[in-house]
Amino acid sequence: MRNDVARLRELGYPVEALRGRAGHYRLGVGAKLPPLLLDDEEAVAVAVGLRTVTGVAGFEESGGRALTKLEHVLPDRLRRQLASLREATEAGPVNTDSNVEDPEVEPGVLTEIAAAVRDHRGLRAFYGEAGERIEIEPYKLVAWQRRWFVVGRSPDTGDWAPYRVDWMTLRLPGGRAFTPAPLPGDLTELVVREVARTGWAVHARLVIDAPADEVLARINPAVGVVEPRPDGRSVLVTGGDSLEVVAVWIGMLGLDFTVESPPALVDHLRVLAQRYDRAVRQGDDRGANRMPLSDPPPRLGP
């Protein structure tokens, strides 16, 4: 037993010992990471996960270093298994829903915010392009739509809101310690609602020619917030990283709509309408030179 304990200590595991009749050994908390004891499936799973995280903005370098270290100590049989898995797999682009680059967030910033959430310690930061000074009581980090948000409460007004982490420059020292207040319902729903209203680079307000229930049945909850109207129609408050992204989401809705704001979205849709109209007319011209395979269907309406 002593020899085994001595070997564990040499490997970096802190082992506490107590002599006497009630003597025992106990694994302690170390100052550095000891070697991890993983079985074959766990080691491969961690390696695959690390390879995935190297594509997440802000974690490319640290994830790559960790993956290199792990692959270096894997047995030959696992290295071959991982190599065959890597050669047989091809990942598509991580960012498939925006033509704007993902914002990078330093892992150290996430760690600092997570510690403040854990310790019920306020955060002081410069926020947004204008560098507004804010102080919030942080409650939860939420990763959503390729963004990191910290849900916080203003100690002055008591208002709750999500704050984009990539828009925050933390100030030291941090804020005051606080006593947690009751959470205002579902935090993810809060993030979706408030981001649709204030958190996008482009915000849009659309009147949809359909009741709210039908719109809600057609959209992902992450797209935005739907409000019913007395006339049976509904309002969709949504947004995106760019006008192009918002236009794509609207097109996928499959319902008639009117843009209330912003005017730039109207201009962009007008350009798209002209482009699609040219494509249709060119297709009709080419189709006129081909013999029809069957009689055309009757026209419905004028």
UniProtKB/TrEMBL annotation:
InterPro entries attached to this UniProt entry: CBASS_pafABC_assoc_protein, WCX_dom, WYL_dom
Boundaries of every WYL domain copy: 109-169
PROSITE patterns: WYL (PS52050)
Region (Disordered) residue spans: 283-302
Domain WCX positions: 201-275
Pfam families per the UniProt record, alphabetical: WCX, WYL
Record protein name field: Transcriptional regulator, DeoR family
